[in-house]
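S.,

Sequence below, as promised.
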Amino acid sequence: MYRKYIKRILDIIVSLLLIIITFPLMIIVGLSLYVNLGAPLWNQKRMREGLNQKSYLMYKFRTRKLDSYHLSHRERYTKFSYFMDKTHLNELPQLFNVLKGDMSIVGPRPFIPGEELPKKPPKERYLVRPGMTGLAFVKGGRDISHDDKLKYDRVYCDNLSFILDLKIILLTPVAIIKYLI
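The prediction came back faster than expected:
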């Protein structure tokens, strides 16, 4: 019941509330990024695979300089855009993806379609909507291996529940703070 109906209803309610609450912040972030990086504000190449492997455009503020692939990782960012990436504030527009039904507040983080992956994601991963945050994120995010991310995705898919989602939501700010330190 939770997986099929209640989770989606909660996603709509929570994303709508968070859009209303964070909209002024999104405007400030957008204007600041425009001053720091110029246009476009959105990352243009953010196609992702979601529920049932259906592709969708994931909304996200652009944090890297245009045509910066020849630069070192750190040189691709301004100080402000690096802060945006580290704090994940650049992902606030994904609330619109949640409202549309492309994503969920909690679920496995989406992969790029056609991306070379060391190991193929399990089919269960595509039976749920990808999330803005997830078990793999709170267990280590960018610092854990691809195999560990897939393992945590599988654990999440097998044990999806309101309590697990609530735990992940509560652990997400802690994970972001740990990432900043």
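Strands lie at 47-49, 55-57, 104-106, 131-133.

Coffee later?
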